[in-house]
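User: Fold this; tokens only.

Assistant: Input:
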Amino acid sequence: MQRKTILLLSAVALAVAGLGLIGGHPYAQADEGPAAARRLSNAGTILPLERIVASARAIKPGEVLETELERKGDRYFYEVEILDARGQVWEVTLDASSGKLVTVESED
């Protein structure tokens, strides 16, 4: 009986350890889809996309090519790709909760 208990506890321990591997690192980057973005915005966790886009265009005027919501750990960030008047593409990263600028990078 004791051997069964040890085997069962070992199996449970391996399963719990495996969840960490299967679920990924807690600070891994993950893209969030439109449904998640709407849910987070409606809950007040992140700012509405319209506000993020306006902030990004105030930083780098131009045509918005793409927006992407990403989660890093327990924080959310919007990456906004903008094509400026000279044909240069920029990636503007904003904190999705506050709208504060994180980075501006030229895409080559």
